[in-house]
Fold this sequence. Notes:
The chain is α+β, with helices and mostly antiparallel strands. It has two domains: 19-100; 109-177, RNA polymerase, RBP11-like subunit (Gyrase A, domain 2). 56% of the residues lie in helices and 19% in strands. The chain has three helices and four strands; from the N terminus they run ααββαββ. The chain has helices spanning 9-93, 97-108, 134-146; strands at residues 113-121, 124-131, 150-160, 169-177. Strands 1-2-4-3 form a four-stranded antiparallel sheet. α2 crosses α3. This is Type IV pilus assembly protein PilN.
Amino acid sequence: MAYINLLPWRDAARKERQKQYLTLLTGTAVLSFLLVFVVNMIYSARIDGQLQRNRFLESEIKVLDQRIAEIRTLNETKKSLQQRMSLISQLQSSRNLGTQIMDEIASAVPAGVYLTQLDKKGTALLLVGKSESNNRLSNMLREAEESELLTTPYLEFIEAGKDSVSLLSNFKMHLKVKGFEEVQGAETTPPANGGAR
């Protein structure tokens, strides 16, 4: 006798397939979640490591900035000390400058020329005085040109004395001191009133 299967086998197969599909879908979702979680953990660890490196670099940069500021301060101090040493060296080399200038002027001024004023500003000298003749002033200019300390003599003017009886001419002459740099407030020669030679 033949058996007829009256059970709903198609429904049971469909349910079995749905059950397998849901199991597979659930497994895929769990695997995807685990994969995303693992990738997220890896990238979070990398980001944390990079942030730690960044913090370390920032702290080292701050230390280097402080050292750079100290180096700049030291460089400024060094520059200041070099300027002071240069100024001291200039003062040392020009400490007898006033005496040397007076000696050179005394040797350059010939007989018959009388100085009434001598001013020094930096390396510039101003001589004001009286002369018996223009030839004597020419001799004085030649002597100044041949001097080892004085240079660039320039005669600003010569004028006859205002007193008609006087035979002396008034003159104004400019000179420069060579071989010495101008030192601020270093040494000034006070005006000398009176004659020289």
